[in-house]
Amino acid sequence: MNPWIDHLSPLGARFHPDEATQIEDFGRVLSAADLAAGFVAPVTDLGLIGVAGDDAASFLHNQLTNDVEHLGMGEVRLAGYCTPKGRLMATFLMWKDADGIYLQLPRAIQAPLQKRLSMFVLRAKAKLRDATEEAQRVAVLGLGGAKAESALRAHVPELPAAPYAKVDGAAGTVLRLADAFGAPRYLWLTSAETAAAALLALREQLALGGNAAWQLAAIHAGVPQVSQPTQEQFVPQMVNFELIGGVNFRKGCYPGQEIVARSQYLGKLKRRMALATLDNAAARPGDEVFSSDDPDQPCGMIVNAAPNGAGGADVLVEIKLAAIDSEVRHGSAGGTALSFLPLPYALDAIDA
Predict the structure, then answer these.
(1) What's the per-residue H, E or C state across 89-156?
(2) C-beta neighbour count of 7 within 10 angstroms
(3) Is the CB of residue 211 less than 8 Å from the CB of residue 306?
(4) Mean predicted lDDT score pLDDT of the chain
(5) How far is 87 from 314, CA to CA, in rounded Å?
(6) Beta carbons of 138 and 80 less than 8 angstroms apart
(7) Which of 111, 200, 272, 350 to pair with 9, CA 20 to 30 A apart?
(8) Is residue 301 helix, strand or coil?
(9) What pLDDT, on a 0 to 100 scale, did the predictor assign at position 295?
């Protein structure tokens, strides 16, 4: 058993019915209002690939959609891994320290992705390992909302000053990610003992959630996460990945690069990712959505979904831009209607 999970069980953690180590929540589904006010969430469904060796950066640079060779020690970047046809097999958070480079992704797809990447190491001096349960990063806490910064600063005095920045210190590693609800989001990676002691104090100041709360915050930040049901479904631009810094068009080749570049420069994009809410908590990644203008075929697919504390779900949905102004429903033309919400960034950055 992961020692971090042992610390969480006595706090009332409710586990995923099919995954005994995946914490859904702590007895109450947090709402968007809870997250906006301030929340803390043990995150147990993300894995970590560590890549070490003299050629680690150049190897990953040739595989991923973003620049790895110029990744700074104080930076965090998004990156994708595509098929030769330009379809995303995974999306990562990426950073480095003195020991190597780290790729964070859903635990459920980590092993096959790690194995696939390892196949292409060949003669490069790079070695991939599962770094998820290494002692100083075995516990992951996600925090966000208006009260999160001051609450976290009591335990980690120095925090990253801007989104996609990183601070390493005696208490572990803190990553600042894209804001949600107008406030910073942080991932704090540390030891089980440090996180357990801090969580007892943090839950007195912040709403306590689990994986679902962290996913809901990411959804409202407009940051997609490719998971098992959506692998090989999207070219990066279809999920706004280049709009949020996940694609570098000036770097060298990588699998699918030609198709990703062609999607960027040849013609206007016809599909994007939007934020929506619906009165159906059963919505899941990979579910199709249908437009009233063309009810016989899907117009899009749910990328990420999380319960919203109001009996429904909030979702990121990849969709034909022409369908956004129509009535869009989940699962079939007769399914639950989606209501679209504004994303925290503009979709017309390159579409105008």
Answers:
(1) EEEEEEEEECCEEEEEEEHHHHHHHHHHHHHCCCCCCCEEEECCCCHHHCEEEEEECCCHHHHHHCCC
(2) 19
(3) no
(4) 94
(5) 24
(6) no
(7) 111
(8) strand
(9) 95
Task: Tell me the pairing of strands 77-82 and 88-97.
Answer: antiparallel
- Tokens 């949020």, residue? 244
Helix (H) or strand (E) holding 295, with range, is: strand 294-307
3-state secondary structure of 238: helix
Query: Which residues neighbour 199 within 8 Å (Cβ) at sequence distance 6 or greater?
Result: 7, 11, 40, 42, 141
Q: Cα(233)–Cα(140) distance, rounded to whole angstroms?
A: 28
CB 25 within 8 A of CB 213: yes
Contacts of residue 191, defined as CB under 8 A and 6 or more positions apart, other chains included, come to 135, 136, 138, 139, 172
For the stretch 207-222, what's the b/e string if a residue is b when 16 or more beta carbons lie within 10 angstroms of its beta carbon? bbbbbbbbbbbbbbbb
Cα Dmax for the chain: 57
How far is 95 from 77, CA to CA, in rounded Å? 7
Take residue 168 and report the two structure tokens written for it: 């390493």
* Rounded Cα–Cα distance for residues 118 and 90 (Å): 15
HSE-CB of 91 using CA atoms within 13 angstroms: 27
What is the predicted pLDDT for the residue at 179?
A: 98
Tokens 């749910």 sit on residue: 302
**DSSP states of 284-344 as a string?**
-TT-EEEETTEEEEEEEEEEEEEE-SSSSEEEEEEEEGGGTTS-EEESSTTSPBEEEE--S
Query: What residues are paired with 330 via a beta bridge?
Result: 289
Say if CB 238 and CB 261 are below 8 A apart.
no
Q: Write phi, then psi, for 321 (nearest 5 degrees).
A: -60, -35
Q: Confirm if 316 and 220 have CB atoms less than 8 A apart.
A: no
Measure the CA angle with vertex 171, ends 21 and 190; round to 5°. Answer: 15
Residues of the chain with pLDDT under 50: 349-352
Q: How far apart are CA 38 and CA 174, in angstroms?
A: 17
Full-model pTM: 0.96
* The two structure tokens encoding residue 348: 């017309």
Amino acid identity, position 174? V
CB–CB of 74/166 below 8 Å?
yes
CA separation for the pair 68, 117 (Å, rounded): 15
* Residue 111: per-residue pLDDT: 97
Up-side HSE of residue 291: CA atoms within 13 Å toward CB? 15
